[in-house]
């Protein structure tokens, strides 16, 4: 094994561990998402056609190979090395409309589908093969990822290598661990790329289910690739059929997709809906991605400026050293240094301009187009389809009135294409990285969805009557529409057929024809077949879809409502301020002495638990001796509250403590003395705040810290919700220029919100007036530095 490893020292490496190949593949929980990664690569390579098909290979695990063949720009040997460098992508730029950004899709997608893949690519006069096999690494016991990467001349088929030994090792590994056992078989794969350039990816040794069958079912439907073990009923078609998923994968398809030799009828969703309407949405909330770009541009600008400064310094030093030396060599050296300094300065100026442009763009609001329409062909397939750079990320997302589960907004489909600068997708392209901003997007779509529902007047005319008109006669929402000819014609009249030319890839809208209601158009349909004479040529420009524009109408508040809302907010802020003022921070023993002589606290579950917790964690201070007439008094066992929830009944009068005894209780007594309690003859029965024996205290869990953490989490959630509400209010104020400016709200700190949360639960320790001397209850004080005297920390307890 050591000898074998030493033979691979000259081969290309992926610069990562073998274990990461498996870990990286697990990011794709949705298997079709892994297949889509390879389709994305073809689209980014400007392919006009991709064929996805299978070839039977009984000797391989899964019994077939899955192939992806496109006519894109292909790769030369140098570009192919970028494939194995994880995270390297030439497509990564904020203005890019390409889907790939991370340089990870091919590896993560292919390793999710199978254990091994081999890639054949053609570009210019070169043929390149790339082989990535987990089987090879497992059998050879390799931890470092080694990738054979041989290449040949297109015309002569001779190897392009300066190291014959390296070429021999690479081809030997391919023949041993791939399905192709000779150079001739490799050339046969290259011959499948019939165009001048293109790429073929073959994945084999496919992943299997627990029953030993492949995860992808290619037997049930010979024209499709299905998700094995998924029932047809109750599952969205895009979750079961890759043909259905590929049809809506791109918001504006410009690439022909063939599955098992049959063309996929790709869709432009906005053209498949009844009464589509677009709503312009502008917001300043989407800043996360733009802030990242500004930070990155600032970093690059500083580096470029430093390089330009260094080059200019070098130029000045060289000019001073050469002086009047006008020899030919000196002038050549000086000119070279001057040109280098000038180019670096230009680069620095350019990066500075980019930074300024991004800083300006950061402050500008982002505009999105929300398109809504009713799916009268399959009304149960409704929800939001969210695209990123034209690629589908989320589908069938319910929002707004659709979350209520009624018939309101039922059957409505929403479509939005979010640029990369507004929201960034996750690595597997099945979600968005910033969950908070994505929730805000869905919330905004829900508001516009409700407006669309009003604008269509479906509810006013009768929802049931509307669906009856299009053939939905069953009471079951998921039941398909009637196939009677009159209903078919009614649906066809409302949604004209939009079809893509197989030659120029332009989309054409066909005029309605009664005899074409159930017509099946050929896969090879071209513009010449268009009955519309103005659109029957490939050189005719594509007509844009003219959608009516809707406007979100917000209910304007009256001056009285605004005044009432403002008064309520001021009241809330005042309550929080008062709660904050009632708390005292203790940082030393000296602060204890400055406290009022009387400490009051409402008897709550939290304080009683904190009292018992303090008994366990520290030695309790010794209490003064009892008076003679109470020494032999019979004690009453502590009673538990009937309810775990603290009541809001007024607390009993606080016990009164004089100054000397309070200080005595705060200081530890001599070890010889025994702890006893002094109480009046009219002492009430012990409550949950009464001291309990040490044994009972040790049997109870320390719940005070847990209660404190729960309060803090609740407060943080409340804080986040309030921040979101404040941001939304600021947006509304910016949009509505006619509204008057309201008074500034009292700033809220996290500390004030914590105190407010505690105040609402009736647990804040209040400062009290100095007490009169009299009969005393026991006062227990636990010192903790630093600590706060409030119910959250529960560090001063009185019973």
TrEMBL record:
The alphabetized UniProt keywords are: Acetylation, ATP-binding, Coiled coil, Hydrolase, Isopeptide bond, Magnesium, Metal-binding, Nucleotide-binding, Nucleus, Phosphoprotein, Ubl conjugation, Zinc, Zinc-finger
Query: Molecular function terms in GO for this entry?
Result: ATP binding; hydrolase activity; zinc ion binding
Sequence ranges of Acidic residues compositional bias: 713-746
Give the main location: nucleus
SUPFAM superfamilies on file: ATPase domain of HSP90 chaperone/DNA topoisomerase II/histidine kinase (SSF55874)
Q: One Pfam family, short name please?
A: zf-CW
The source's superkingdom equals: Eukaryota
Entry annotated with the keyword Coiled coil: yes
CDD domains recorded: HATPase_MORC-like (cd16931)
Compositionally biased spans, kind Low complexity? 636-648, 674-704
Record localization: Nucleus
Domain CW-type: where? 492-546
**Might you report a single GO cellular component term?**
nucleus
State the residue spans of region: Disordered.
596-772
What PANTHER family has UniProt attached to this entry?
MORC FAMILY CW-TYPE ZINC FINGER 2, ZINC FINGER CW-TYPE COILED-COIL DOMAIN PROTEIN 1
Identification of the protein by name: ATPase MORC2 isoform X1
Say which species the protein is native to. Answer: Xyrichtys novacula (Pearly razorfish)
């Amino acid at each position: 094994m050591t000898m074998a490893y030493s033979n691979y020292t000259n081969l290309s490496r992926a610069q990562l561990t073998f274990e990461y190949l498996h870990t990286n593949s697990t990011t794709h929980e949705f298997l079709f998402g892994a297949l889509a990664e390879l389709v994305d690569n073809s689209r980014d390579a400007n392919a006009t056609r991709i064929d996805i098909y299978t070839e039977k290979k009984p000797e391989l695990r899964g019994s077939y190979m899955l192939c992806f063949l496109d006519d894109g720009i292909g790769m030369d040997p140098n570009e192919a090395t970028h494939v194995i460098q994880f995270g390297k992508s030439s497509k990564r730029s904020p203005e890019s409309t390409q889907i790939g950004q991370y340089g990870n899709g091919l590896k993560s997608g292919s390793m999710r589908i199978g254990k091994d893949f081999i890639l054949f690519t053609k570009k210019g006069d070169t043929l390149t093969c790339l082989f990535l096999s987990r089987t090879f690494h497992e059998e050879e016991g390799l931890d470092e990822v080694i990738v054979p990467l041989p290449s040949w001349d297109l015309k002569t088929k001779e190897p392009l290598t300066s190291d014959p030994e390296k070429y021999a090792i690479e081809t030997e590994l391919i023949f041993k661990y791939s399905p192709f056992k000779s150079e001739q078989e490799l050339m046969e794969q290259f011959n499948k790329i019939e165009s001048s350039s293109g790429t073929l990816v073959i994945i084999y040794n496919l992943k299997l289910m627990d029953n030993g069958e492949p995860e992808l079912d290619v037997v049930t439907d010979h024209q499709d690739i299905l998700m094995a073990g998924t029932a047809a009923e109750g599952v969205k078609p895009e979750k079961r059929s890759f043909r259905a998923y590929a049809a809506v994968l791109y918001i504006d398809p410009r690439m022909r997709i063939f599955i098992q030799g049959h063309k996929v009828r790709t869709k432009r969703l906005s053209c498949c809906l009844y009464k589509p309407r677009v709503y312009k949405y502008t917001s300043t909330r989407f800043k996360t991605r733009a802030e990242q770009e500004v930070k990155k541009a600032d970093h690059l600008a500083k580096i470029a400026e430093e390089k330009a400064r260094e080059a200019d310094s070098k130029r000045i030093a060289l000019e001073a050293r050469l002086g009047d030396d006008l020899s030919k060599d000196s002038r050549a050296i000086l000119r070279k240094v001057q040109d280098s300094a000038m180019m670096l300065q230009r680069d620095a100026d350019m990066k500075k301009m980019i930074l300024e442009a991004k800083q300006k763009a950061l402050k500008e609001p982002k505009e999105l187009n929300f398109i809504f329409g009713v799916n009268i062909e399959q009304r149960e397939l409704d929800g939001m389809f969210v695209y990123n750079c034209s690629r589908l990320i989320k589908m069938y997302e319910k929002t707004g009135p659709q979350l209520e589960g009624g018939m309101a907004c039922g059957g409505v489909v929403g479509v939005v294409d979010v640029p990369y600068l507004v929201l960034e997708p996750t690595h597997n392209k099945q979600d968005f990285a910033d969950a908070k901003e994505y929730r805000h997007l869905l919330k905004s779509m829900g508001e516009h969805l409700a407006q669309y529902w009003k604008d269509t007047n479906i509810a006013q005319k009768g929802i049931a009557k509307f669906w009856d008109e299009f053939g939905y006669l069953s009471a079951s929402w998921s039941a398909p529409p009637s196939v009677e000819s009159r209903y078919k014609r009614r649906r066809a009249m409302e949604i004209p057929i939009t079809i893509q030319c197989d030659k120029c890839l332009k989309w054409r809208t066909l005029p309605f024809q009664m005899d074409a209601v159930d017509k099946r158009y050929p896969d090879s349909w071209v513009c010449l077949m268009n009955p519309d004479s103005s659109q029957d040529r490939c050189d005719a420009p594509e007509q844009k879809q003219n959608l009516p524009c809707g406007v979100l109408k917000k209910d304007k508040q009256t001056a009285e409502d605004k005044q009432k809302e403002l008064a309520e907010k001021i009241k809330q802020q005042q309550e929080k301020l008062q709660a904050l003022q009632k708390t005292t921070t203790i940082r030393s023993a000296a602060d204890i002495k400055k406290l009022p002589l009387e400490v009051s606290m409402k008897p709550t579950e939290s304080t009683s638990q904190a009292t018992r917790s303090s008994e366990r964690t520290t030695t309790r201070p010794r209490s003064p001796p009892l008076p003679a007439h109470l020494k032999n008094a019979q004690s009453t066992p502590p009673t538990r509250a009937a309810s775990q929830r603290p009541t809001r009944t007024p607390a009993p009068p606080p016990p009164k403590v004089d100054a000397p005894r309070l200080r005595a209780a705060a200081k530890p007594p001599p070890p010889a003395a025994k702890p006893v309690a002094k109480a009046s003859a009219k002492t009430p029965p012990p409550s949950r705040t009464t001291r309990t024996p040490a044994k009972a205290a040790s049997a109870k869990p320390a719940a005070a810290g847990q209660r404190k953490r729960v309060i803090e989490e609740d407060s943080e959630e409340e804080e986040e919700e309030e921040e979101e509400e404040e941001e939304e209010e600021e947006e509304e104020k910016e949009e509505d220029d006619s509204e008057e400016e309201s008074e500034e709200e009292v700033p809220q700190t996290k500390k004030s919100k914590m105190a407010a949360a505690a105040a609402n639960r009736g647990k804040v320790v209040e400062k009290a007036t100095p007490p009169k001397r009299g009969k005393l209850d026991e006062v227990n004080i636990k010192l903790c530095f630093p600590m706060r005297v409030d119910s959250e920390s529960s560090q001063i307890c009185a019973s």
